Amino acid sequence: MFSHLKWANYLRYWDGPEQGERPAAYIIMLTPMATTRFHHIDTGIAAQTILLGATEKGMGGCMIASADKAAISKLLHLPEAMEINLVIALGYPAEKVVIDEIDDPDDVEYWRDDDGIHHVPKRRLQELILN
Ligand SMILES: Cc1cc2nc3c(=O)[nH]c(=O)nc-3n(C[C@H](O)[C@H](O)[C@H](O)COP(=O)(O)O)c2cc1C
Q1: Is the CB of 64 under 6 A from ligand 1?
Q2: Pick the CATH number of 2-94 from 3.40.109.10, 1.10.1020.10, 3.90.110.10, 3.40.91.80
Q3: Which atom from ligand 1 is nearest to the alpha carbon of 122?
Q4: Is 29:43 a contact under the CB 8 Å cutoff?
């Protein structure tokens, strides 16, 4: 599964987690090909809930959309009538993550400092609420 996923596009010098730090489990989120226009919303709600539950149990996770879906379907013998929407990688976190509030709303690229701490820039709440 690992080789079919693309990790952290913004960390251009990093090839993804090394052996021993790779996810312990994956959840492949599927919807029927013939589905409602809400399937992306439903997938997002479920993915967020799974990750909140995992975090509460001390695990970490990552939603991954950059996946070789044809290869994963073949690997897992998934029915042709089902579409892969998202992959969730799960494991126990090996790195420290901090959230940085940003002044420039376009400055959303996550990065790692010299101590290996992973910084995730987030827009301020005031910018996200109109009026
Ligand atoms: C819909 C969606 C698709 C994503 N796809 C990928 C991906 O393919 N590869 C990846 O490394 N991160 C991907 N990410 C980013 C991570 O899942 C995560 O959101 C990011 O590292 C920021 O961490 P945080 O959401 O916990 O703050 C995606 C995020 C979202 C919401």
Answers
A1: yes
A2: 3.40.109.10
A3: 27
A4: yes
- The architecture of the domain spanning 95-131 is Single Sheet (2.20)
> What is the pTM (predicted TM-score) of this model?
0.89
Let me know: does 3 contact 59? Beta carbons within 8 Å.
no
CA distance 51 to 64: 12
Q: Ligand 1 pocket test: pick from 49, 63, 118 the residue with the most ligand atoms within 8 Å of its Cβ.
A: 63
**What are the start and end residues of each CATH 3.40.109.10 domain in the chain?**
2-94
Q: What is the pLDDT of residues 14-57, one digit of tens each?
A: 888 889 999 999 999 999 988 778 889 999 999 999 999 999 99
- Does residue 40 line the site of ligand 1, with CB under 6 A? no
User: Average pLDDT in the 107-119 region?
Assistant: 92
